Amino acid sequence: MANVPATDLSADEALQRLIEGNERFMRGEGRSPFLGRRALTDLLEGQQPFATILGCSDSRVPPEIIFDADFGDLFIVRVAGNIMSPEIMGTLQYAGTYLHTPLFVVLGHEHCGAVRAALETKFHGTEKRERVQSLLQMILPGLAGVGPGLLPEGALRRAVDANVRWSMDQVLETPEAQARVAEGRYRLVGAVYELATGRVRFLED
Ligand SMILES: [Zn+2]
Fold first, then answer.
1. What is the whole-number distance in angstroms between the Cα of residue 55 and the centre of ligand 1?
2. Per-residue pLDDT tens for 50-59?
3. pLDDT tens digit string along 10-44?
4. pTM of this prediction?
5. Distance of CA 21 from the midpoint of ligand 1 (Å)
6. Which burial class, exposed, middle or buried, applies to 90 when counting CB atoms under 10 A from its CB (0-12, 13-18, 19+)?
7. Which residue from 33, 102, 125, 139 has the highest number of Cβ atoms inside 10 Å of its Cβ?
């Protein structure tokens, strides 16, 4: 591993950078990261990403584009439903321990098919293929507070937020994450990408 120092941005500065990038993207002023060929050689010695993002695999939610970020900026895990698993936890631990990214973001999104399918299992007992179903089972505990009384789209909106918080809770359950957050250098925030507007809505604590 190359001995490159971590970013010197604070967690709050890193969050501000994401917010400003998302604003550029919404204004249609985003730079395409795919034009940044020079960045490749600048990064030969290592990486100093300022944020780690756990997002959904959905093709409509590419973090580098919606945050107008460049090569080397974001350390990203994408998995359907932005769920937590031992492998994903290991990836986040790597980011915290070796890359020292000050900011961690769990990024859900509107109209998430994985969350929608988990709701269908919860309320209608719908079953998907075995491995898909086991993924949905990992979402269900976070949807305990989503009742059957809401209209489908209201339930989905509520469930997307709840699923983000559920992944955040699982990160924060680890003593290591608790210690890092208590030190004050690291922040974990939740966010939901709004498909229609391009806006990333950061969840209140
Ligand atoms: Zn999704």
1. 8
2. 999 999 999 9
3. 999 999 999 999 999 999 999 865 655 666 777 88
4. 0.92
5. 21
6. exposed
7. 139
